[in-house]
Amino acid sequence: MSDQQPTPPVGPPDPQGVASPAPDEPDQPTPVPDQPTQALPVPPGTPVPPPGTPVWPAHAQAPVPGQAPPPYPPAGYPGYPVYGQVTTSTNAIIGLILSILSWTVCPIVPAVIALVLASKSDQEIEASGGRVDGAGLNTATRVIAWLNIGILGAVIALGLVVTLFVLVAAVASGSGL
To answer: Is CB count within 10 Å lower at the N or C end of the chain?
Structure first.
């Protein structure tokens, strides 16, 4: 017993070299206007592909069983150079890491360094002509670093105000420190 199903019988090829379906099949595939009108010769006994199956271009050779089809042409438009892959600025990545670390380790120093790196990264991105990216990382770096600096400044200001009130209250009550 064979696991393969029998292929439907096909008629002889028509003048264009396309195998015609068996006479008992009522629906004939209609040609698609976007596909080439001239088909490649089909060996006798080859089953007809179902409707909607893409047809190889007339200038291409039919694939040989057991071999891979020909490779696709290179990407891009003909006559235009293909540029390399866009990379992310290293300064943008390091700046973002430092701005996040500034929340846990010595808040001011990493945040200021992150802001400097974000500025350098912006200059690098502008000078690259589109080959370097990272503007979004720079924006995130600035937001995180300035929030950290602002919150630290608010905590320091609040601490100074509380200390000032404690000193004023101590002096007003007449007791020494």
So the answer is: N
